[in-house]
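Hey L., structure's done. Input below.
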Amino acid sequence: MTSIAEAAKNMLTEKDPHGKKPNEGGAKLDANKIDVGLLFDFSRALMEVARVSTMGAKKYSRAGWLTVPDGVNRYTAAFGRHIFKEQIEGEYDLESLEAGFGGIRHDAQIAWNALARIELRLREKEQQRRETVFMNATSIADLANIAPGSAVRIPR
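Output:
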């Protein structure tokens, strides 16, 4: 995880991939940033994962998975079940066919469960970091170093 000081330093050292100065016309300081456009290389696979999300939102609730108790372990178990079910049933989940959701691919459900685990773990780490920063803050000046947009609980 990047510290606030490291992030600030990186902001100051951002560069245009074509060598343009920051205030020069056409400059875009994104030379060292993550290229999320690369995810478009997986457009078909991600559409299948989106189908899993859509099915889940209809069957349960939109974003309800974020509040499932013991979510990391339960999505790990679902991940494993779909690996086994793919070997037993083949490419498509028979349960989703019977429920009227059409053919949902087991591998897309495996990917969805992997993403859910990653997302829950990352959110948990972020929350721990916020709590640690807040608990270690000795002044309002220290709190000013918390990343913009971060949620902070203020004790009463």
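Residues 1-33 form one domain. The helical segments are 4-12, 43-59, 71-89, 94-98, 106-136, 140-143.

-- N.
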